């Protein structure tokens, strides 16, 4: 189904943290959702609101462990769900964000 995927590890959450999605269109309101899983390259998000499939980039803001992370992402796929939509995002390449996210995910893994 996702034949182009090259990443190996995705972290799922017991209680998904909230994520704020800011579409790049001027005047678009923030949308809220839940971060279902994450890797260093992308994330899967659930939201009751529908994002336009033609969105270019979307700014995401979420908290993993202790750090608030802000990143630009591209909407790769979306699928209808009984109560909303599930989205797949690909993060813009950012070595600093990747390092911070890897550190936070490792800290969470040590706690479990």
From TrEMBL:
InterPro entries: PilZ_domain
Pfam families in the record: PilZ
PilZ domain location: 25-98
Organism ancestry: Bacteria, Bacillati, Bacillota, Bacilli, Bacillales
Protein name (database record): PilZ domain-containing protein
């Amino acid at each position: 189904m996702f034949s182009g995927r090259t990443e190996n590890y995705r972290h799922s959450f017991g209680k998904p943290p909230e994520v704020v999605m800011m579409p790049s269109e001027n005047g678009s309101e923030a949308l809220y959702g839940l971060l279902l899983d994450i890797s260093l390259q992308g994330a899967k998000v659930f939201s009751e609101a529908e994002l336009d499939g033609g969105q270019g980039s979307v700014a995401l803001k979420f908290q993993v462990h202790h750090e608030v992370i802000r990143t630009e992402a591209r909407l790769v796929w979306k699928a209808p769900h009984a109560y909303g939509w599930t989205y797949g995002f690909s993060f813009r390449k950012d070595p600093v964000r990747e390092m911070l996210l890897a550190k936070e995910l490792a800290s969470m893994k040590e706690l479990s």
